[in-house]
Amino acid sequence: MSVTNFLDAAWFPTCMRHKAQPELWMVGSMKGAPVEFMAELKRAKAVCTGFVQDLGAVLRPHDIHIVPWELPTGTRTRIPVALNHAQALVSTKAAAICLPELRDNENCILVDDLREMGQAVNALLSDPDKRKRIADAGRNTFLQHFTRASVQPRFQQFLETLRMPRAMAARA
Fold first, then answer.
1. Sign of the torsion angle spanned by Cα atoms 135, 140, 146, 149
2. Whole-angstrom distance, CA of residue 17 vs CA of residue 123
């Protein structure tokens, strides 16, 4: 499980480097989570919110948002959500591979593996100005690439490409 791997490879070593332990929040239902996983979250002193209807209530601007998935399993909808809430995104390259809008050290931090993720989180915890800059650039990326207004022209263009072959076939 990627979160457990993240705790072992990145979270615990990162926390040990700081005088004040940063908060780890797990947003979403933990229903059905293995007992061992819940014990690891307790050891990490994680705040487990359960299901949250309004993510704006828990996703605070300029917090660090981690995506520790190690395999390229498809679009991570939580990435645009994090960007929308002006959070400093730290993701594995594998988890973000389908989002070319992401630019390492510009609007997010992209890492190769979970050990590197721990170092990136540690660096952002130590540099609030960089964390804010990355988070604000991420919010701008959301506005430029993920809002309805920004996506609609591309979607319309795509629909037009679907219509062209039909029109050409009707003329034949």
1. positive
2. 11
Q: In sequence order, what are the residues at sequence separation of 6 or more whose Cβ sits closer than 8 angstroms to the Cβ of residue 38?
A: 30
Which pair of tokens denotes residue 115? 């050990």
CB atoms within 10 A of CB 22: 16
The mean per-residue pLDDT over the stretch 20-43 comes to 91
Look at residue 163 in the predicted model and tell me its pLDDT.
76
3-state secondary structure of 48: strand
The pairing of strands 64-67 and 88-92 is parallel
Q: Give the Cα separation of 17 and 40 in Å (integer).
A: 19
User: Over 80: is that where the pLDDT of 49 sits?
Assistant: yes
Is 89 within 8 Å of 82 (Cβ atoms)?
Answer: yes
How far apart CA 66 and CA 105 sit, in angstroms, is: 15
